[in-house]
Amino acid sequence: MDTVTERMHFDKAMSLLESGDVEAAERALLSLEQVEPTQESAPMLAVGLSLLANLRSEGGAGVMKPLLQRAHQICENFTSIDPHVGAEIALLLAPVLLELGEEETAATILATAAARARQCSPPHAQVLTRALLMLAGLRGDSDEAQALLAECVDLAQDAEGVDPALPLVLSQQAQRVFSAGAPKASQRLLERAVTVAEENWDPGDPSLATLLTNLAILQMEISSSDQHTIEENLNRALGIAQLAFGGEDPEVARVLSVLARLFIKTGRAREALPLLGKALWIHQENASELVALADVHCSLGIALALALAQGQDTGADADTDTDADADTEAEAEAEANGLEAVEEHFAAALELLVDEGDGVEPLRRFIRENRERFYQQLSSSSD
Hints:
This protein has helices at residues 3-19, 22-30, 42-55, 61-77, 83-99, 103-119, 125-138, 143-155, 166-179, 183-200, 206-221, 227-245, 250-265, 269-285, 290-309, 324-337, 339-352, 361-382; strands spanning 157-158, 161-162. The chain is mainly alpha-helical. Strands 1-2 form a two-stranded antiparallel ribbon.
């Protein structure tokens, strides 16, 4: 196939994609799959193969990998390809390799993506930032990861200041890094996200409340975290969310639930009860997702069990600013029903998750473990 014919197929595919005919576009691109590239045709072939990989993404990483690898190799072999194109193709290939468990190869490809992005004039900041963030995630809690994260923040700064979307990008990457098993690196990402947001966003931006809450959740997983700082961040998040959404919004309930979990973790089960009572009421009033409701029911079961085990007066008044009826509902329930209330909340949590699929299995397991622990403690105390 000569270059003119290749160009015709490529242009046809582009036209079909613009018109929304994806299947026909894929057929047009198929003819490029086995073509041997030349200096003239290499840019078109590399882009065409990467497009074909994206069109076949439903087939999974195993289907996308050979197409993107060939596109990447073409970029390596031919100087006629714009480094912007090469950088973007490398950045497409890296996540595919990660999904297949090829972390070292992915790290090499990310380094290549970063190098190509730096060759652009001006440097391709978006690709460079994403490549460095992914590399930082692969480097775990090392000094190298810290240096990469610092470079990412520097890259986001220009003559007009920081990209307003940077905190959200950092937050998204923090989730990926945590999933990869590097909680401290994830914490650093979120801390930077909060810092950049505080310096560049409105103080009442509800997205800042989300960042503060996510940071608190992560810090609670790390034993060396300062509990007082976590509580301060959550109270800030709560204030922002209440001002932005009002006192009866699911986002407010989410912050209340996390703050309650902190109280439970630090031996203040009684203080957690009114917060969870309010959170449960908000979720019920807003017909929130079943997983959110189940999570609050589980926390209520744990808090009530701990309060009863510690011999606390769960019916006493609490010093809190939330609605009085909702605040005392959980406490009054514990006083009236005692141990039955604990089982009811654990059972309610599991019932809400019956049809939620395998994705919530960790939460189901957590609920069962805490219910079993409660009954073991109850049996020990009765002996």
